[in-house]
């Protein structure tokens, strides 16, 4: 058995502050376009089964108890107390929180307090630009305010994140757009935009990416599964190859989020380029009983110093729990098997476990 | 051990009525372009080994006996009696039969009689259009007769199937073609066509897909491995994403056939869209000793209420047997492991096994 | 336990003749763009762990000893003696050596002497063309000399290899270019070229491929992982489908090298086309403890008579050792499991092991 250290969750969101009924809870188990098909439920997924395995014991129930029983107990404790028990039972001691999703979600400070942990903010570039656009009257003021906002965010945030792949696809031109190009795109976007309008213009998305790269903060790029997007093959991380090559040697780290089902491609890029790292986010939450097998696929090509645990959780503290528990179990089982078979030494296995669980993230994000 | 219920084979073809020699039998073990390479045989494949494992005992022989010995016994019994023993030994109690392939194959009624089972017809859209074209003199009569034929088929068939991916690739424009566009394409196709000529025009393929969607019957789309086609990446089910989105909410179910080696993509679509389901056809027949592992990959993202067993068998009743036996063994082993490890509860495992084996198909196709 | 026969390494390079320090040794463990990231080492990869597992015992050390200890012992023995112990401990009895990489590498004769084995040369088409260009004054003499060189190489080499996928991508027009097209491309290339300049013109790459096909010698095509290239998806072997189809029936065998992470696609092509074979090179060297699992994925679709072992090693004899040891262990474990579970017979497992280890290569390359 490989002992697992405490975890740095290097990419997650906050949790909902409101009490949840069965339907609302179920809706947060997966990212779908539309409600579950008649005759089916989102509880009948690897995510649903994993929640039912790991979470009931933290609230004093039997594993695999029926969803309705679990939700009743959750309401009995209240959303705050349930959240406290769950987050504190997860084994996560540092949360990096992407604050860029809408909804009544806890921020980093509240995550830290509820989870008795540390927490830092990840700033989502597209939201930042949309917020700046909401309050800027002209193209010049938009671009000036945006530069200032990115600069300001870099001072307090631990990282930037971008959903360019979900908004447009990752097949973006790799070089930074020229100033005239950016001004033109900003003008067209602002002219056609209502307050709150989403940014999907490829020139402005590239401008954001390069602004973040210039800041020196690590840049997390959504790839593979993540938020529902246009078409999953447009978020294959291999499409980032030329952008990755263009940003090599500039001193800014890139982190490929999620990756799955293109996780072998993300691992390949982490193996070839010194500044590229691969996140394990979607693996655990989405694949449940299969977590060890999918993790093993990432561990083929990715150097062990370039892999980062995250829960990828959003909305339900249950998802932070499931991400953390499945990670610990999967990594422990996998490395344990390799040690037993003689492929790895016990000391190496312990060392690699610590690197993926926390050490690599501490190094890249400069955490204590 | 998870007990397995009787199976609904939701996609297969009939079996050959003629006695087979070693060479003809071998040719049905794989779909190749050309005969086996000198010095090799198609028996030396996962399919060949699986046939030799599962079928000889049903004809009173030892597992893994040499192919020539097996074929001799098969001829000794006669094609009818051998077929009866094989199909009745498969554990399949309902066959959905695609009648759209050429050759002297048994239809649904004969499959039912031979296998002591139920059977229903699946109508292949492209063949339907080709048959209508063979007997229609003008564009107007072709389109009118086609509409009538689709309408008629919807009344007696259990589903439609399309090989648009094999004929043209799945990267089809997602919206229905306009009436003028369809008339133009039909005119060009009929003018250049000889009797029996195959349909590969993308406008007419889309017209067929949308005619089937309008009928309300489930529509099965070939993806990934299936029939030999142009190029396998052109049948990646992810290419259907926009078509899937365009057909959402219309009340017609889509079933992605085969999928492999893009089965994780098919599972992803089944997870995101309520009306999409994933078939397991090619998994068992093609990957043999690897069936449990490939099945496990599909079980990562696909909701358990959206997965359907099929054999995908064609020509040889041995392939129905292999599909069914490998499915039962693989699912039983996989779910058994998850129960043993505590990831799933025994009750959930039994319930999911029944859903994939038969329940989901009964719900989607309205079977008793 | 399946006993393993001696191995034919059907694709590798020579080993370095110079003594190596820790840094130079480490640099040969992976193919990266840039040095390892600060705080990481290329020893912390599956390749690094596999070298530390398999090689120290051949030099009289404990498995998994620290890299510095291993390198010290290696220098103590001297590069020649260390190379002799390693290669002779690998179990490889025939090496097919691609001589087309730069550096002070041993050629086939030296590999044979050092390893107490047989060795044959594989000629790299692009290097051949570049060497001819270096010494040809005109387009006519270049094309004439090239034809003569290919003809000459076919007489002594065991195979040709091409890195067209790395230089341009595998999405090449499938048919041979016309003579005028070739002359035009050669003229443009020679005019713009300095001595030693690399060939990446798609017309000339296609001309080389078709020259090799015409020679009748097996043609090895780099696909998937291999040398660092433009973008990995441009080396997906599925992109070769039309070229494969165009070369069917001409009597020349094609071998898809590496394949991973598109190894299932390579296996698919080997299953569909009689003249296509799949190499296992990158699997073992790159994925280490995962070798059996990745090998298993190739064994889904590839006919057992179409799979070829190779180490894919370059520069370090340690990599020949790792490739061979991981192959033997992985295949033995995998087939052993299938025999234990009843899926394969012991006799079939032994037969298939021998085919993949050596027999298929002997047949295809006409080795004794």
UniProtKB/TrEMBL annotation, chains A, B, C:
Origin: domain of life: Bacteria
Keyword Hydrolase assigned: yes
Ranges of residues in domain Amidohydrolase-related: 165-367
SUPFAM superfamilies the record matches: Metallo-dependent hydrolases
The protein's name in its UniProt record: Amidohydrolase
Keywords: Hydrolase
The UniProt record lists the keyword Nucleotide-binding: no
Molecular function terms from GO: hydrolase activity
